[in-house]
């Protein structure tokens, strides 16, 4: 598809995703406050993820990213909403990369908590104070690695300047070069003699990205499998506890599928395609399209899987419909009574 069509789809996903993310996460935060007593410390982890999702959606909406893959190069282009320096634009793009990485890392922490709760309950103390403060510190290490790599290992060069100008001119000709900031992941290029020149630093940066992604995925898979196996082996817990554990595990299974479809798979394509010199061109914007929708879809799983949350929502909807019907009937009776009197 053309760049113009993709930008239209991406901007639409931005509006829909931001609205859905804000509304759904606000509802989830309200449910955690009023109906989350049985969740223990886990509700604070869920609350953090909700607040982060709203923050992430705001950052995405401000930076309005474009992704483009061409000539063994992946371009992350941000459309400026106001004028600022090239250096600040680079910092903004690296910060967006940090938020992107945080999504992977926090998802892994969710699975670690459920693994502790089900398989190693004595280790749940690590999610209480003062150990709780160590988790943000630990999570910040891979996130900082991802952002630092994006900022330091992909400098702007004459080649990247010419390449991004050509991309804008060819695929997004209504966007001016001075109105964007970018990070260009150049894997390799050919000189005038046809000799391939490999960018070792850039490939090293991609290895760091893959390492962070792989580690979070391994953590989710191992903890998820171990949690499932332990739940099937131990039947002696109370029915109420088992039901809650089962609901949370179903939520986590779906919370694995959603990021796998909307985050892991697109990001994998994002880094693999340039290595094999696959020119996705403007079609690489499907990655942005998915990332705009992801923060709003994830909390929906918790709302509809956890019974207390689901029943609260349904009761609220039914009560609203009942009040609307009662009000309509009262209005009708009043009109009939007024007509009879007349």
UniProtKB/TrEMBL annotation:
> Entry's InterPro entries?
7TM_GPCR_serpentine_rcpt_Str
One Pfam match, by short name?
Answer: 7TM_GPCR_Str
Which top-level group of life is the source organism from?
Answer: Eukaryota
GO MF terms here are:
G protein-coupled olfactory receptor activity; G-protein alpha-subunit binding
Q: Name one GO cellular component term.
A: neuronal cell body
Compartment list: Cell projection, Cilium membrane
* Mode of membrane association: Multi-pass membrane protein
Transmembrane stretches, start-end: 15-32, 44-63, 93-113, 133-154, 207-228, 248-266, 286-306
Keyword annotations for this protein? Answer: Cell membrane, Cell projection, Chemotaxis, Cilium, Glycoprotein, Membrane, Olfaction, Receptor, Sensory transduction, Transmembrane, Transmembrane helix
- This chain belongs to the protein called Serpentine receptor class r-10
The species this protein was found in = Caenorhabditis remanei
